[in-house]
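Hey, quick one: can you model this chain's 3D structure?
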Amino acid sequence: MTAYVTEFSVRDRARDLSQIEAFIALNTFERPTLVLDTGVVTDNFHALQAGLGNARIHYAVKANPAPEIIDTLVGLGCHFDAASRGEIELCLSRGAPAHNISFGNTVKRASDIAFAHRAGVTLFAADADEELLKIAEHAPGAQVYIRLIVEASEADWPLSRKFGCDRTMAVALLDRAVALGLEPVGFSFHVGSQTRRAAMWAATLDEVAVTWQAALDAGHDLRLLNIGGGFPAFYGEAVEAPTPYAASVISMVRARFGGSVEIMAEPGRGMVANAGAIAAEVLLVSRKSDTDLHRWVYLDIGKFSGLAETIDEAIRYQFVTDRDGDATGPCVLAGPSCDSADVLYEKTPVQLPLTLAAGDRIMIRNTGAYTSSYASIGFNGFPPLDVVVL
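Sure thing. Here's the predicted structure for all 390 residues.
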């Protein structure tokens, strides 16, 4: 493999990728490798906190569970949103206080609830009667918030109906929590991943505000609103900067829910996406026929080795090659596995240099979120995504 050319390190390029690109330019990699810069994570935390004000940040560990990222955020006083016992154990092992961790998955194993309770976790999510029963039995007296389904979403990756309950059930679940001896403290929702503009939150907040008022009218003393994630990263389409974006969201929240409500947010992508880039390699460039309009470009990384978010072409990554500056043309981009689903971009082809050939190296920008955490441990015998932390 040849090294990246020095054009990857443009002096006036923004800090968030300059160190990563310089490292990739100076090193060779035997297989796809995610390079992370925890300094960018620190910058992102401060930028989000500046906009969120007194709202509490719970980093969504699932976005990237690299221990070095957890260490960095623990040092900054960040809180954490954990989806599993494994993520709770990770946060605890890196020094996060148990009371700074929320168990935000609404589908939990009873023994994991008991473990979290013993460890000192006090805040749990639920969206169903049976989940409240499990929490009441295995974490008696715990604080709970009810996750709401979001119907109005303009996100690039809207979340499905897998999580949350309809607003007609929400008040009844608060009542049920009280009857079970739990402490219902509020609601949570998720506006949808990669919500590019703060204004896109308005309809969702209006929807949640109706349910919030219904709960107050029913006599519940709500004090916590978990606004979830949705904070965007740059993937080619313009997004607002994190501080003004977060400030706009909080302004809309305060206008609907008042100044005394405790707010927690769960950024994942917005915290770590631009803190990483993947060094990869072109394995093959071909055409399916002499008259085929598009080349097929196969990389050594695909859906099963870190790029799962290319499903339905929802997240469109940005690519840099040694041959940038040459004439470009459209191509279908695919991964290396023997699975026909391992096609990254076909509906909307990617523009890449016409001179691109097998053996060329390619860098995939802003891949710090949902890549290493999605990568399989060895589908088709391909190794999992390597991670290097600067």
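One thing worth noting: Residues 16 and 379 are 31 Å apart (CA to CA).
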